[in-house]
């Protein structure tokens, strides 16, 4: 969390190897990303990382099913494997009935579920989510966060950038960034969601009141 321009999305881009750090090192699963050549970076992203964006980034010319399958198609996975993964992923996210529809035929909340399905169908080691609830109403946002809770409980690591205190209060750990520097962090521990919400709100208030 942090104000606009604090470096949140830049950090995600660095983790995704779309940008390079000006100093320091970034390790993903023990691999220094600086050692990964550009020719390998694209396949590394497909295999190790999943992405969820505020604006969904779905292709309107493809059906929901084909949007979800796209990362597996690009990785040239066997068709039988793709179909098995599609069945499980669509079932887990409750979007089986949407598979033959197109993105322009479904709601914003449904689009984001499709985007999540596309992101996790490759079983990535890390799911990177940049303001995933930013374009959703409160009901759809809560439903998406429930999905994140479910896949996190199944062992999926999620790194989410958000301006939403409600969304952040669902996390197990919250990092606050100010001017590109780690300002503070909060661990959930045995705190309730309400307690997390209050602690996050208090931290953001202090950050906003401080003069750079």
Automatic annotation (TrEMBL):
Pfam families: ABC_tran. Keywords: ATP-binding, Nucleotide-binding, Transport. InterPro entries: AAA+_ATPase, ABC_transporter-like_ATP-bd, ABC_transporter-like_CS, MacB-like_ATP-bd, P-loop_NTPase. Residues 1-204 form the ABC transporter domain. The keyword Transport applies. The keyword Signal does not apply. SUPFAM superfamilies: P-loop containing nucleoside triphosphate hydrolases. GO terms for molecular function: ATP binding; ATP hydrolysis activity. PANTHER family: ALPHA-D-RIBOSE 1-METHYLPHOSPHONATE 5-TRIPHOSPHATE SYNTHASE SUBUNIT PHNL, LIPOPROTEIN-RELEASING SYSTEM ATP-BINDING PROTEIN LOLD. Belongs to the ABC transporter superfamily. This is ABC transporter ATP-binding protein. It comes from Streptococcus oralis. The lineage of its organism: Bacteria, Bacillati, Bacillota, Bacilli, Lactobacillales.
